[in-house]
UniProtKB/TrEMBL annotation, chain A:
Gene Ontology terms, MF aspect: ATP binding
Taxonomic lineage: Bacteria, Bacillati, Actinomycetota, Actinomycetes, Kitasatosporales
Sequence ranges assigned to domain ABC transporter in this UniProt record: 2-231
Keywords: ATP-binding, Nucleotide-binding, Transport
This protein's record includes keyword Nucleotidyltransferase: no
Pfam families: ABC_tran
Entry protein name: ABC transporter ATP-binding protein
Protein origin, superkingdom: Bacteria
Record has ATP-binding as a keyword: yes
CDD domains, per database record: ABC_NrtD_SsuB_transporters
The organism of origin for this protein: Streptomyces tauricus
Length: 248, 282
């Protein structure tokens, strides 16, 4: 369980986040939406332990976050910058396993299995820069999932992909989430995406000093489907609510 | 490409490829023109033949030297000193650069010393070092090392500073510590910069090797050959033939290093364009 308690963040005098209190139960897929520059990424980096907590507390499973929490994984928007071009795809995916004390063959097998899971069977020997953007982000997702994280943070992961690829990856994410039951915090500026992907949507106000202005459970009938779900009246109503909250 | 993710610059890359394909041709043309000019000046009697022999004579002599075991032993000695000095420079500059680039406190403490030493012309140190170490291989290697350290050192520090913070954060977020980030992300990301530094240093090292030999005046080496030819009557042809050898040596070293960079770092933006595997993916 992830808990943020009166979390505040500032860069010098500039307040970025103000009094954020949130509880994310295990297995939830939480979407954080907000206008650009509202501190969504700062929130994510704070939870990841990459930024020190200024005010309030962040805790994972009851333990306050002081450094990078155990069993955490992150997927950033810029796959081109966060995948390592000097490593083949398989080595990129296997990299987090080095901290698990696994031998080389086990790491390789795990990486191959994860690549198959994200639909990249047989791409292990290629290099990230030889793949399309969508495939590269699949690699990043495989790498994030390879050590079975209990908390997965995603910072606008599909923001730089074309619409078709983006929908494919949204569905991949939903499928993985159903299968693994990982707690996921998914940051996006895309209102549609947040409602489609999330179990719950939290909207942050425009900065400075962003706060939570809407905390909305997403309940949609049936399995999510790119075309059918987006046409549901429930979906449209939720999207409108989130949209109003984002625009203030 | 490295920063964004979407394509772009395709036209630029294509132009680049065309330019590169033409390079050898243009280069050969340039060499031929220069040789022709030298030949003409030599033959036309504009200058005395002893001062500037025609290019054909110089080249013939250079080729002839390839069969001279004594001369080749000298070239071997120069290349050995070059390799040893450059190797030592790498062994010193890369770890030092990693230290300076990743520990700001050390960087600030050492900066003043570095900024004092760096502008000293290495060639000006030849008499001093000869006095201390004699005029043998030690002097040569010491001077080569000294001069070659700087480009590698500065490129290492610069490359570290250029490492993408997101690449580092990614590894940190997987729970890796600082040393892991240095070795697994910063070092490989900096490697192309280090290699470029080594290539600059390789040329500097050759200059130092030959210059030290010329100034020292005895022992063995390509520089010794040039220096002694310079003392002989009618030695200009030999001097120039020796210079041709030095030039060819430098060119060969550079070509090998460029080839090595392309093989080792196919992911860098300047190499992706001519990499068939990368082109296929686009």
């Amino acid at each position: 369980m992830l808990r943020l308690d009166s979390l505040g963040q500032r860069y010098g005098d500039h307040s970025v986040l103000h009094d954020i209190t949130l509880t994310v139960p295990d297995g939830q897929l939480l979407c954080v939406v907000g206008p650009s520059g509202c501190g969504k990424s700062t929130l994510l980096r704070t939870v990841a332990g990459l930024l020190p907590v200024r005010e309030g507390t962040v805790s994972v499973d009851g333990a306050p976050v002081t450094g990078v929490p155990d069993r955490l994984a992150v997927v950033f928007q810029d796959y081109g910058r966060s995948l390592y071009p000097w490593l083949p795809v398989r080595e990129n995916v296997a990299l987090p396993l080095r901290r698990r004390g696994l031998g080389r063959p086990e790491r390789r097998d795990e990486a191959e299995r994860m690549l198959e899971r994200v639909g990249l069977r047989g791409a292990g020997r290629r290099y990230p820069w030889q793949l399309s953007g969508g495939m590269q982000q699949r690699v990043a997702i495989a790498r994030a999932l390879v050590c079975r994280p209990s908390l997965l943070l995603m910072d606008e992961p599909f923001g730089s992909l074309d619409a078709q690829t983006r929908e494919d990856l949204e569905d991949l994410l939903l499928e993985v989430h159903r299968g693994e039951g990982t707690t996921i915090v998914f940051v996006t500026h895309d209102i549609d995406e947040s409602v489609y992907v999330g179990d719950r949507v939290v909207v942050l106000s425009a900065g400075p000093g962003s706060r939570v202005v809407l905390d909305l459970p997403v309940v949609l009938p049936g399995e999510r489907d790119q075309i059918a779900t987006r046409g549901l009246p429930e979906f449209v109503a939720l999207r409108a609510k989130v949209g109003h909250a984002v625009r203030g | 490409m490295r920063r964004g993710g979407s394509g772009g610059g395709g036209a630029g890359r294509a132009a680049e490829r065309v330019r590169r394909r033409q390079d050898p041709l243009l280069g050969a043309l340039g060499v031929l023109l220069a040789l022709g000019l030298c030949e003409a000046v030599g033959r036309a009697g504009l200058v005395r033949r002893e001062y500037l022999p025609p290019a054909s004579e110089v080249l013939a002599r250079a080729v002839e030297l390839a069969g001279d075991p004594l001369f080749l032993a000298g070239v071997g000695a120069t290349v050995r000193a070059w390799a040893l000095g450059l190797g030592l420079a790498c062994a010193i500059a890369v770890p030092l650069g990693l230290l300076l680039g990743s520990v700001p406190v050390v960087d600030e403490a050492v900066r003043a010393v570095v900024e004092f030493l760096r502008p000293l012309p290495s060639v000006a140190l030849i008499p001093l070092v000869s006095l201390l170490l004699g005029s043998g291989t030690e002097t040569k290697v010491a001077l080569i090392t000294y001069a070659s350290v700087w480009p590698i050192l500065f490129n290492t520090v610069y490359g570290l500073g250029e490492t993408d913070p997101l690449a580092k954060d990614t590894l940190r977020a997987f729970g890796f510590g600082r040393l892991s980030v240095l070795l697994r992300v910063e070092l490989p990301a900096t490697a192309p910069f280090i290699a470029a530094g080594v290539r600059i240093s390789a040329a500097v090292a050759l200059i130092l090797a030959v210059a030290t030999e010329i100034l020292a005046g005895f022992g063995e080496g390509l520089g010794i050959f040039i220096a002694q030819a310079g003392l002989a009557t009618d030695g200009t042809r030999d001097v120039l033939a020796g210079v041709v050898w030095a030039g060819v040596l430098g060119l060969a070293i550079d070509m090998v290093l460029v080839w090595g960079e392309r093989r080792l770092f196919p992911w860098t933006p300047e190499h992706r364009g001519d990499n068939p595997r990368a082109a296929a993916a686009r």
